[in-house]
Amino acid sequence: MPMLLGPILGYENNEFYTVCFLADPSITNPMLNLAGKAVQFIKIAETPNGILWRAGLPLAAAKNGKSYDYTLDDQGTVLKDKFGRDKWSFYVPGKTEEPKLVYASCNGFSSTKLARDTANPYALWQIMKVEHSQKPYSLMLMGGDQIYADEIWESGLTPTINRWSHFTLDKQQKYPVGSKVQKELDKFYEQIYIKSWGAHSDMALMLASIPSVMMWDDHDIFDGWGSYANIAEGGLQDCPVYLEVFKYARKYFEILQIRSLNNNSLLDKNGTHYAVGLQFRNYFVLGIDNRVARTKTSLMSEEQWIAIKSGLSKLTSPIKNLLVMTGLPLVYRDFSEVDSLLQATPWRDEVEDDAHDQWTALSHQGDRMRLIQILLDFTKQQKCRTAILSGDVHVGALGLIKDEVNTLQITQVISSAIVHPAPTYFEWTGLSVATSDEKQRLGNGSITAEVITPIGSDKYIRMRNYATLEMGTDNKLWVNWICEQNLKPHYPIVSV
After folding, report:
1. Residue 398's domain spans which residues?
2. Using an 8 Å Cβ cutoff, are 51 and 9 in contact?
3. Are the beta carbons of 457 and 160 closer than 8 angstroms?
4. From residue 480, how far is each of 309, 437, 490, 492 by CA, in Å?
5. Which pLDDT does position 348 carry in this prediction?
6. Are 355 and 338 in contact (CB under 8 A)?
7. C-alpha span between 287 and 257 (Å, rounded)
8. Residue 18 lies in a domain
9. How many domains are there within the chain?
10. Cβ atoms within 10 A of the Cβ of 218, count?
11. pTM of the prediction?
């Protein structure tokens, strides 16, 4: 019996592995068969066409690495994915083994035209499958835009939203939401996940074969979420339709990317935000939620700031490597002056939300400095390597934050995008003109941030890519970008 979506393999704190899948309601008592045990799935949500199930169990590392096979069944009936597979496997590294990690973002297209015009869109998932078969990845970090829901305004599944998008602004701001809109949105987000994650055999196989940790960004909701003006400012951010769209985007993010509030990595068990913190061998992964409480002037709630600081301060064992997932990069081109330039351009409305989104936008520089200081303090205290993992910008890049007084540094790794094409030459030229690439001095001037050039490429990797992280025998954490055209930029992150 085929599933509608999945299986999707996850990792949580305390060496806990999960399997989730979406299936027809005729499946009523599914079991996970893993490591010689039969684990009963629990129902975590209902969708218009199915039920989402979750099961999991802890798998402590053995002396040597081990591959685990797993199957799913429902009262003796074997469950299969949409490609006919009925057995999957994943790798758990040994106790002292240095695991191989992979980081990816931007798994989709911002327009149907772009999707139609892109040749071999899943080429990097095919490459990942080959790489994984040769030396398995032990953890996959996905840093935002796991789906692209931008087609919501023109989808055949949302005709009421389509009509609303052509109303006058005044009518859009006041338009009430009823059950018809809710049903359309529920079905739309269900189907966009089924279509996006089940689009290609190799992608589906990797989602079932590499334990993942995910954090959302704007396209998981729709482009620019949180960076628009409110009704009082002449915008739509807090209008009933936008808020209802967010409600359903949030539902599906919570059940398919966070995999329910049962996730033991959540820093807030009530779901007011979705920041996660988890230990994986010599890595501590901190995933920051920059969407659930985002506004034009703030990137996250005070509750999340407190949770992040508290979560880091409560770590008792020494941390060798801190990996911080934040969808938008803290070190990238400077957008602080772009507003004044946009005033004089005919495409202001199309790109203003992207400018407001960036950490380097004037309205977010206070938050940016606050996070940098938290990470520098932690790096100093733990004497650990700290790397920020980001995506969003559709190019790969490398940045450094340096504290010259305390001789500390944080590395910014940008890997983007695994499916979405890189900016065209015209688009990149326009962005380069409108933004600055100068070295930035922050705070009192003793902290600097700059984009530097990886080994083996130009400063910006303008082609699709994903990144791997692995400790070398030289005690350096090596970042390797796997790119189209067989380009392999790399960079070693050294200890403090």
Report:
1. 98-493
2. no
3. no
4. 30, 23, 4, 9
5. 45
6. yes
7. 12
8. no
9. 1
10. 26
11. 0.94
